[in-house]
Amino acid sequence: MNDMTKPSSLPQHTPTQRHARRLPLFDPALVKPAIVDSFRKLSPRAQLRNPVMFVVWIGSVLTTLLGVQALTGQGEAPAGFILGIAAWLWFTVLFANFAEALAEGRGKAQAAALRGSRRNVVAKKLAEARHDAEVEVIDSARLKKGDLVLIEAGDTVPADAEVLDGVASVDESAITGESAPVIRESGGDFSAITGGTRVLSDWLVARVTANPGEAFLDRMIAMVEGAKRKKTPNEIALTILLVALTLIFLMACATLLPFSLYSVKAAGGGSPVSITVLVALLVCLIPTTIGGLLSAIGVAGMSRMMQANVIATSGRAVEAAGDVDVLLLDKTGTITLGNRQASAFLPAPGVMEQELADVAQLASLSDETPEGRSIVVLAKERFGLRGRELHDAHFIPFTAQTRMSGVNIPTPAGAVREIRKGAAEAVKAHVEALGGQWAAAVNDAVEQVSRRGGTPLVVAEGRRVMGVVELKDIVKGGIKERFAELRAMGIKTVMITGDNRLTAAAIAAEAGVDDFLAEARPEDKLKLIRDTQAEGKLVAMTGDGTNDAPALAQADVAVAMNSGTQAAKEAGNMVDLDSNPTKLIEIVETGKQMLMTRGALTTFSVANDVAKYFAIIPAAFAATYPQLKVLDVMRLNSPDSAILSAVIFNALIIIVLIPLALKGVKYRALGAGALLRRNLLLYGLGGLIVPFVGIKLIDVVLGVLGLA
Amino acid sequence: MNASPFWQLGLYLAVLLALAWPLGRYLAHVLDGRLSSRYAWLGRFERGVCRLIGSDPNEDMPWWRYATAILLFNIAGVIAVYAVQRLQGGLPLNPSGMTAVEAGSAFNTAVSFVTNTNWQGYAGETTMSYLTQMLVLTVQNFLSAATALAVVIALIRGFVRRSAAGLGNAWLDLGRATGYVLLPLSLLFALFLVGQGVIQNFSAYRDVKLVEPITYQQQKTDARGQPLVDAAGKPVMETVKTDKQTLAMGPVASQEAIKMLGVNGGGFFNANSAHPFENPTPLSNFAQMLSIFLIPAALCFMFGRLVGDLRQGVALLAAMTLIFIAMFAVVQWSEMHANPLLTQLGVDGSAGNMEGKETRFGIVASTLFATITTAASCGAVNAMHDSLLPLGGLVPMWLMQLGEVVFGGVGSGLYGMLVFAMLAVFLAGLMIGRTPEYLGKKIEAYEMKMVSIAILITPLLVLGGTAVAVLSKAGLAGVFNPAAHGFSEVLYAFSSAANNNGSAFAGLSVNTPFYNILLGLAMWLGRFVPIVAVLAIAGNLARKPRLAVSAGTMPTHGPLFVVLLVGAVIIVGALTYIPALALGPVVEQLQLFGH
């Protein structure tokens, strides 16, 4: 029960900040620069990054040249037709560029919003690590790693720093969106302060931990901004597949020229297929839809994380989140509300319940933890006992060694009432050391409480055991349903708690987790992760303390709370600015969404090809083998119109799918089989049918406009 | 055999599964060394043989060592087959006095038999001595099948092993495949065939007196054997009357058994399984069809057993069977129609398209054989595929173009299908939002690269080769049939060679230096590029840990996966070949039937 009196500073997250950063999809402020960028990205160097679109780019250049040649009167087809094809090929490239530019623009806008909180401020540089040392006032940009600073009430924290002295309440809303202030003090898990946050009360002496521009968040934001975006492993694998598909179609189209030459000779009529038509066929067949949107999907995945106030160090981490098999969740703050509340007084034999309540309240008056406060409140509710002013009382704070807290009150008689409360074993040892008796009934009560999932807190006065206060964990509303969803997704949840087995089992049952690790020490956590990984599973966890760092480093997906220590943040591969451990579930979903979007669009892209064959093959060989007209199931206006319609459809579908690429395919908590069936129907079958309709419509429009 | 086509198909599949099931069990025991670890003497024997050839039996070869061993073994095979063909004139067992095979043809045949293609640019009874047939061609029938068995075993080890460096000992695998599987099965099957009337002798060719003399016309030849033409360039014909026929003899049964079981398909005679000495009775025909699919089907069961989940193997088998049934239905439907060009000439078309088919077998046994032999990479034929109607001819061609994964070759069918399974799993994995995994192994960039190479190489060879052929004079010289059918013949030849099938649209004359060399290259690359890629995948998979299965893992054993796998095979095949097929069989069919 070492976490019993841990300061409960886990903020209750509020979603207000998040909405502020959500921009409309086609926000004019983003669209305009994106359009400019789409043209800038036409440079061959930019295109080389994306092999599929590079092929389209070459096709555009080639058809443009053929069109120019046709204008001079010696083209292979009418100049209007060739230039029409060329124009739409250029649009295809531009649309893909636009999708990428738009995604990047959104990412940048989000990063800028984060950076906004990191303006330069005035820093009070200290000569020595003392509160009253000499102060030099400088610009925060000039602070270096290792500098000592004083931050007083009302000051903005000038840089990421480690508290050396002092205790202060800090408003971290600029970073976390959380309005309730948190306590920062030296030593332990709450000593890290982040630049841009504001000290509300008291003062802190801190040592700067990062040079300007290199602060942890700076680095993370830089990464998210896309400039340093590396392709994720699955993205690389998918790119290989797309290149392979492109090569297949390149062969299929390139060999069509000799085949066509032979056919013309064999059939004794018609003309061989033109280069323009072959390029059009090639561009329609290669997976331009996914090829054009692939990088936008990756960028958008990272921004979606940011929208959820999570900064991921790499796309790889986001992607890995989708693969997670086991979630390790801290009980406190994730599964249960951060605090336990007193729910009953169970007096020892020979003690009145009210007497116990009174003593327990006395012991808790100075205890500012939610647990302590709840004892005071319960005593008041049950017996009308009010908080009293205690003069001359000496409060005994909780320490890890004694695992007890309490109060020493001098009585008018000159004696001292030594009241203690704490874990059963600690109090038992304390009482027995004083020569007191440990009644069997107390043991029963302790066990009873544990079995119910509560935490027994034993209260003693001197060597007399007064009884047990039952602290109950309050399981968060709706958490059970979330776990059921995770189970359906094939993800196992494991609750980590310092509680004993009985308590842990009861809460685990109530919350509906699959497994739990009780009486967990940091090394137990690490071992659990290693063992789980050895079974071939991927593990995700959240953590905030320095002692979580090894486990965070070992886990495949490690989300550090922004409220946590620097060590924890460095060890993890994501930082949750809201410090909301339940966010892990959202992260997993975002990771899955990113992969699903890629898979869905690839399937859609490939399925599209069937219709395009039906449009282009009969058109391309209409002159040589008129019999192939039977395959023109869409009954298109003319061969030229058929080819142009297919190319236009191929370009427009990119624009149509940009919202899907940026928002991601909707994730549903279904088993793998059901999810696959659903997506296959939607994107596979849909991808088969949509282009038939689309190409026909475009053909009709072209006919109406008199272009066909 | 006039039974309804689907009764015959049903019977065929039922007997096939009944035989493949126990064989799969047997294969799982012998191929991965379970048997030799159970019986100590067998293990000692294996290790002894291994040391004899200078290999350390305990060596666990990394993938590239394994691949090198396989490649060297097969290069040695090519040299041996080439040498014996060239030297056969001076070697024993040559009662009919065959002379050295021409160099281009010998090269083509050597590659052809080593790559399990058994493409035959020659006619066996007029080219090869008995020694050549037995010592190199038959032996290579065994060894090429053993090669693919070793590769598939290595790939399965890649899936099964966790964080392992090696794939096993290639020599040991080759030996086990030959000694425990191919030899005993072939012995049994050869005896059965002899019982049905397949010949097995070393006699010289026999002249027999015809019951009725026969008169026919043939082109006159000059003293040097060159065909004569008159001043107008027309062939000079002469009328010949004969009452004699020469019957080719030879050790046929011993070669016939492995030709089918090893899914090789190279006939002893030019007429292949349409020849009565190779395939005398309806029962032998049925047994031959069974023997083509027997080991490929059993391998699926073996795969399931070795990976510890029989359903995984059954799913692959189901996918293969589904495609096979659908394809058979199309061929059967097509061949039930009469050829309109023949009915115009007054030929009775009520029996369907009988051109090029044996009356002994009829339509159903011929279409079933044609579908089986091209679904599997066998290439043995009991009817002439060139005479199938366009749509009926499209199916065998397309079955080869699918990559010979519908049952496919011994071993190569399974590893080919597993490559497609990885492709299907990759797309499906993305669609459910997880890094794709198959049998607990993550399918990542490296695997996708190798999968791409394995899948890309054959279209490159087929389409590229066909393009070269129809562009070049030497290529066009072999095309006898006009128009779209001529194109189909060239396309068929390259599809057959690059996918290691070996059957042909015989209207194309391929025993020319151009085709011998180009097709030889296509066969070699179409065989060994995928093998190296598959072994590279196996090596990389073996190094990975095996992930646990959860509800979030995509199941790869249910109907959904079967549909997905079928879809992957069909879509890749369709997208690659639709344009080419449109200019060949599709337009032919429309010209013939569309009005």
UniProtKB/TrEMBL annotation, chain A:
<feature type="binding site">
    <location>
        <position position="548"/>
    </location>
    <ligand>
        <name>Mg(2+)</name>
    </ligand>
</feature>
<keyword id="KW-0812">Transmembrane</keyword>
<keyword id="KW-0633">Potassium transport</keyword>
<feature type="binding site">
    <location>
        <position position="371"/>
    </location>
    <ligand>
        <name>ATP</name>
    </ligand>
</feature>
<feature type="active site" description="4-aspartylphosphate intermediate">
    <location>
        <position position="330"/>
    </location>
</feature>
<feature type="domain" description="P-type ATPase A">
    <location>
        <begin position="125"/>
        <end position="225"/>
    </location>
</feature>
<keyword id="KW-1278">Translocase</keyword>
<dbReference type="InterPro" id="IPR018303">
    <property type="entry name" value="ATPase_P-typ_P_site"/>
</dbReference>
<keyword id="KW-0472">Membrane</keyword>
<dbReference type="InterPro" id="IPR059000">
    <property type="entry name" value="ATPase_P-type_domA"/>
</dbReference>
<feature type="transmembrane region" description="Helical">
    <location>
        <begin position="273"/>
        <end position="297"/>
    </location>
</feature>
<feature type="binding site">
    <location>
        <position position="544"/>
    </location>
    <ligand>
        <name>Mg(2+)</name>
    </ligand>
</feature>
<keyword id="KW-0597">Phosphoprotein</keyword>
<dbReference type="GO" id="GO:0005524">
    <property type="term" value="F:ATP binding"/>
</dbReference>
<feature type="transmembrane region" description="Helical">
    <location>
        <begin position="642"/>
        <end position="662"/>
    </location>
</feature>
<dbReference type="InterPro" id="IPR001757">
    <property type="entry name" value="P_typ_ATPase"/>
</dbReference>
<feature type="transmembrane region" description="Helical">
    <location>
        <begin position="51"/>
        <end position="71"/>
    </location>
</feature>
<feature type="binding site">
    <location>
        <begin position="398"/>
        <end position="405"/>
    </location>
    <ligand>
        <name>ATP</name>
    </ligand>
</feature>
<dbReference type="Pfam" id="PF00122">
    <property type="entry name" value="E1-E2_ATPase"/>
</dbReference>
<feature type="transmembrane region" description="Helical">
    <location>
        <begin position="77"/>
        <end position="98"/>
    </location>
</feature>
<keyword id="KW-1003">Cell membrane</keyword>
<comment type="subunit">
    <text>The system is composed of three essential subunits: KdpA, KdpB and KdpC.</text>
</comment>
From TrEMBL, chain B:
<feature type="transmembrane region" description="Helical">
    <location>
        <begin position="6"/>
        <end position="28"/>
    </location>
</feature>
<feature type="transmembrane region" description="Helical">
    <location>
        <begin position="560"/>
        <end position="582"/>
    </location>
</feature>
<dbReference type="InterPro" id="IPR004623">
    <property type="entry name" value="KdpA"/>
</dbReference>
<dbReference type="GO" id="GO:0005886">
    <property type="term" value="C:plasma membrane"/>
</dbReference>
<feature type="transmembrane region" description="Helical">
    <location>
        <begin position="361"/>
        <end position="381"/>
    </location>
</feature>
<feature type="transmembrane region" description="Helical">
    <location>
        <begin position="286"/>
        <end position="307"/>
    </location>
</feature>
<keyword id="KW-0813">Transport</keyword>
<feature type="transmembrane region" description="Helical">
    <location>
        <begin position="517"/>
        <end position="539"/>
    </location>
</feature>
<keyword id="KW-0472">Membrane</keyword>
<dbReference type="GO" id="GO:0008556">
    <property type="term" value="F:P-type potassium transmembrane transporter activity"/>
</dbReference>
<comment type="function">
    <text>Part of the high-affinity ATP-driven potassium transport (or Kdp) system, which catalyzes the hydrolysis of ATP coupled with the electrogenic transport of potassium into the cytoplasm. This subunit binds the extracellular potassium ions and delivers the ions to the membrane domain of KdpB through an intramembrane tunnel.</text>
</comment>
<feature type="transmembrane region" description="Helical">
    <location>
        <begin position="388"/>
        <end position="407"/>
    </location>
</feature>
<feature type="transmembrane region" description="Helical">
    <location>
        <begin position="413"/>
        <end position="432"/>
    </location>
</feature>
<feature type="transmembrane region" description="Helical">
    <location>
        <begin position="134"/>
        <end position="156"/>
    </location>
</feature>
<comment type="similarity">
    <text>Belongs to the KdpA family.</text>
</comment>
<keyword id="KW-1133">Transmembrane helix</keyword>
<feature type="transmembrane region" description="Helical">
    <location>
        <begin position="314"/>
        <end position="333"/>
    </location>
</feature>
<feature type="transmembrane region" description="Helical">
    <location>
        <begin position="177"/>
        <end position="199"/>
    </location>
</feature>
<keyword id="KW-0633">Potassium transport</keyword>
<comment type="subunit">
    <text>The system is composed of three essential subunits: KdpA, KdpB and KdpC.</text>
</comment>
<feature type="transmembrane region" description="Helical">
    <location>
        <begin position="63"/>
        <end position="84"/>
    </location>
</feature>
<dbReference type="GO" id="GO:0030955">
    <property type="term" value="F:potassium ion binding"/>
</dbReference>
